[in-house]
Specification:
- This protein is mostly helical and 188 residues long.
- The protein contains six helices and two strands; from the N terminus they run H-H-H-E-E-H-H-H.
- It folds into two domains: 77 residues, no CATH class; 92 residues, no CATH class.
- Strands 1-2 form a two-stranded antiparallel ribbon.
- Helix 4 runs antiparallel to helix 5 and helix 4 packs across helix 6.
Length: 188
């Protein structure tokens, strides 16, 4: 970037500050996301009940937030100690997250097609633009990306598939609400 805009350019400083603000915003989004996921899993009975508690004053899942942060810090500090398929722990976790995102994208698109076929009269306040071409293209691209990721990361895929299988099996045995959920709970 210094080569393009110059070493003491105001543009360089502006881009660095914009990148920093983007990172901070992304970091806050991650904290909100992981804490709510841990909280929801605990409330559904998949994680220990204590993780489904909220702070009495702030009404936030404070224990889930602290636990998720501790796991993240432990992953960062063990990055050089643990390697999977020649990649650092963090790189392997990111690759597994991409596998998960691609599975989610594919399932979302497949669900869209299934719902359109089985429930044609269902009220739809939001319509997928350019249906069926855009969702079909998104589904195909997710498939291509998934296959490419498996080809270039077979060991990490095996770890991902094993973890998913364990999660599915565990959900059959653990799925019970640990905390009663009101019918009109705004957190749902």
């Amino acid at each position: 970037m210094k080569t393009v805009v110059g070493e003491s350019s105001g543009w360089l400083h502006m881009l660095v500050w914009l990148g920093l603000f983007g990172l901070v915003a992304s970091f806050h989004g991650i904290i909100m996301g992981y804490s709510r996921q841990i909280f929801a899993l605990a409330r559904a009975g998949y994680l220990p009940k204590v993780l489904a508690t909220v702070h009495p004053r702030f009404r936030t899942p404070h224990i889930a937030t602290l636990l998720g942060g501790a796991v993240g810090i432990a992953a960062i500090f063990s990055d050089n100690l643990i390697q999977i398929a020649g990649q650092s722990l963090t790189a392997s976790i990111v690759t597994m997250a991409v596998f998960g995102a691609l599975v989610m994208y594919a399932m979302s698109m497949a669900s869209l097609f299934k719902l359109r076929r089985t429930e044609p009269n269902l009220a739809r306040p939001y319509l997928a633009p350019f249906y069926p071409v855009a969702p079909a293209f998104a589904l195909a691209m997710a498939g291509v990306c998934f296959v490419a990721l498996v080809v270039y990361n077979p060991v990490i895929f095996a770890v991902f598939a094993s973890l998913m299988a364990i999660a599915v099996i565990a959900s059959r045995f653990l799925g019970k609400a640990a905390v009663p959920v009101p019918a009109l709970d705004p957190a749902i």
